[in-house]
Design goal:
Layout (H helix, E strand, L loop, with lengths): L12 E6 L5 H14 L3 E6 L6 H5 L5 E4 L5 H11 L6 E4 L5 E2 L3 H11 L3 E11 L5 E5 L5 H4 L13 E3 H7 L10 H10 L3 E13 L5 H4 L1 H14 L10 H20 L2
Helix pairs in contact: 9-10
């Protein structure tokens, strides 16, 4: 078994990777991509039964902690809470997603230069199970102001958060199954700026086992509920005017990705 314990200090940036350890080929790709994205502490959060000693010995991860409570969101929250005090910027990456070369370094440069920015995001490639590109999320600066009234066009893979802002807004909501990142972006937008970096930062693996692919309609419904929850009370009764077309457009976009597989 892998010895569990707090990660070692000495990094400004940390990436939490929640995993069940069932897809080692994808996991290795993910960890290798983080190493190529910049200097970062890589913290695995996984069940106690998963032995990560080989990955740590190879330098693909720095530390592993045993998940205290099962579930993706709980694992991410646990990882963030376990980071050393000297970590300034944090992110999480799915164990089947990938960062692009230099992505972390470029995102850090933005946050260093813009102290009012609480997060950086960029474009994201959708890839299939074999790593072939099937779609590109062409996000932009306009994705941030659109959050409260339109679809979430900010990709979570590749995003980097200011640690102090994460502490301010609190942990990810564990009662959400799919839209916890959407909710986090909205909460962060209330305390600072979400800054767009005009480059592709990550690959999101779109395949049958992906959480958001398996339950796309539920994901879209939940995102709608999150949007409404953040609206002023006087707007919620009339939000159906735009929520229905937004939900339909989001489902249509998912259908287009499916057609390109």
């Amino acid at each position: 078994m892998t010895p569990s314990g707090p990660p070692v200090a000495g990094h400004r940036v940390a990436v939490v990777v929640p995993t069940l350890g069932r897809r080692l080929d994808y996991l290795r790709e993910s960890l290798e991509s983080i190493r190529g994205a910049g200097d970062a502490l890589i913290l695995l959060v996984a069940p106690a039964a998963f032995d990560a000693s080989a990955l740590i010995a190879e330098g693909l991860a720095d530390s592993k902690i045993d998940e205290a409570v099962p579930g993706l969101t709980a694992a991410i929250n646990q990882g963030f809470a376990s980071l050393p005090a000297d970590v300034e910027y944090a992110a999480w990456l799915g164990d089947d997603d990938r960062l692009h070369a230099g992505a972390l370094d470029d995102a850090v440069a933005v946050l260093d230069r813009k102290p009012r920015s609480v997060a950086v995001y960029g474009a994201c490639e959708y890839i299939d199970g074999e790593g072939r590109r099937v779609w590109r999320n062409r996000s932009g600066w306009w994705a941030a102001p659109l959050l409260r009234f339109g679809p979430d066009l900010i990709p979570q893979p590749g995003s980097l958060f200011r640690r102090s802002a994460l502490d301010e807004v609190g942990p990810l909501r564990t009662d959400l199954g799919w839209a916890m990142d959407f909710d986090l972006f909205i909460r962060l937008s209330k305390v600072g700026r979400l800054t767009y970096l005009p480059r592709t930062l990550a690959d999101f693996r779109w395949h049958a086992d992906s959480l958001s692919v398996r339950a796309r309609e539920d994901s879209v419904r939940e995102a709608s509920e999150v949007r409404r929850a953040h609206l002023p009370g006087w707007l919620r009764p009339v939000s159906g005017i735009w929520e229905w077309p937004v939900r339909q457009a989001t489902l249509r976009a998912a259908g287009l990705v499916k057609e390109h597989e």
